[in-house]
Amino acid sequence: MHPIIYDVAVSADGFIAGPGAEISAFPHEGDIVADYLTRLQNYKTVLMGRATYEFGYRFGLDPGANPYPWARSIVVSSGLSLPGDRADVELWPDLPLDRLTALRRDSAGPIYLCGGGILAGYLLDLGQIDILRLKRAPILLGGGTPLFAPHSCAANLRLLDQRDYSAGLLYQEFALS
């Protein structure tokens, strides 16, 4: 079974985006970003929710296009519709545990949980996030999209790796148990 890896930037107060899905306070260059872009190439499947997928529209992504063309991309949403002539992404209306288990078994490699918030909270509650990779930024957003929302489960984390970067940026990798 391939791992599901939640690889995400997060503020010091636990948000992956500020109000209105604002991300401009997060770093967009430097070694921490270069390392993230290198890690991206190792993911074979990308799993995201509607809000994360539609966020790409702000940056020129066409509806139905795959934001990660080297990987199989799946958008989990019951409310999103995509052009019928596009087969670049898969649209799943839901993600029951049996389908998730099949995805973990059949993926060509590690699965990237892209974005987060609601889908991350759902997967956390199911116990289906194996690795949490945090790119911690020394910023306070005061609100926005939380790292996990909503969720009701507690989890123990085991630190696997930690690296300091310039300007107070910190990378941490945890195994969930």
Question: How are the SSEs ordered, and which strands pair?
Answer:
Blueprint lengths: L3 E8 L3 E3 L13 H10 L4 E5 H6 L16 E5 L13 E3 L4 H10 L4 E3 L4 H9 L4 E7 L7 E2 L10 E8 L5 E7 L1
Parallel strand pairs: 1-6, 1-7, 3-4, 3-6, 4-5
Antiparallel strand pairs: 2-8, 7-10, 9-10
Task: Describe the protein.
By secondary structure, the chain is of the alpha/beta class. It has one domain: 3-Layer(aba) Sandwich (Dihydrofolate Reductase, subunit A). The chain contains 4 helices and 10 strands, in the order ββαβαββαβαββββ. It has helices at residues 31-40, 50-55, 97-106, 118-126, and strands spanning 4-11, 15-17, 45-49, 72-76, 90-92, 111-113, 131-137, 145-146, 157-164, 170-176. The strands form 2 sheets. It has an 8-stranded mixed sheet with strand order 5-4-3-6-1-7-10-9. A hairpin with a 5-residue loop joins strand 9 and strand 10 (170-176). The longest helix has 10 residues, at 31-40. It is globular and about 45 Å long. The two termini are 16 Å apart. The model has no long low-confidence stretch (mean pLDDT 94).
The secondary-structure class comes to alpha/beta
Low-confidence stretches: none
How many domains, as an integer? 1
Provide mean pLDDT, rounded. 94
**CATH class categorisation:** Alpha Beta
Largest sheet: 8 strands, mixed
List keywords for this structure.
177 residues, alpha/beta, Dihydrofolate Reductase, subunit A, two-stranded antiparallel sheet, 4 helices, 29% strand
